[in-house]
Amino acid sequence: MFPSIREGWGLTISESAVCGTPSIVYDAPGVRDAIAFGKAGYLVKQRGPTYIVSYMKKVIEEVEDYENMVQNAFVFSKRLDWTKTAEQFEDKILYHHIQKE
Q1: Across residues 76-89, what is the average pLDDT?
Q2: DSSP letter for each residue of 27-63
Q3: Backbone phi, then psi, for 25, in 5-degree steps?
Q4: Residue 42 in contact with residue 35, Cβ under 8 Å?
Q5: What angle do CA 25, 31, 34 make, to 5 degrees?
Q6: Containing H/E element for 68?
Q7: Cβ contact 26:3 at 8 Å
């Protein structure tokens, strides 16, 4: 569970996904991206303890859905790579530099 209402990126969500642990998050910038908009974790549309608890119950009661989410979280986490991030950042810098010349 990661009940933040604003994050740049939910790094702990990504770290959990690598371990096959999907997160339960509020529909907020940063965290919604970290769970692939509800495909690799549970996206709670309304804020408040009642809504989070309902998803916690869902994890316990809907085992097959949870197992699918475990797989989705793990697969999505494999797309997150610092090497790719660095390469994309470098490409943007080079592109920006070339455009200024």
Answers
A1: 84
A2: S-TTHHHHTGGGTSSEEESS-SHHHHHHHHHHHHH-H
A3: -135, 155
A4: yes
A5: 110
A6: helix 63-77
A7: yes
pLDDT value at residue 80: 84
- Amino acid residing at 33: D
**pTM score over 0.90:** no
Contact 30, 6 (CB under 8 A): yes
| Rounded-to-integer distance, Cα 44 and Cα 88, Å | 31
- The Cα 7–Cα 15 span in angstroms is 15
How far apart CA 63 and CA 96 sit, in angstroms, is 48
Q: Which two tokens mark 71?
A: 């797989």
| Dist. CA 7–CA 11, nearest whole Å | 9
91 vs 80: CA distance, rounded Å: 17
Q: How does residue 18 score in pLDDT terms, banded at 50, 70 and 90?
A: very high
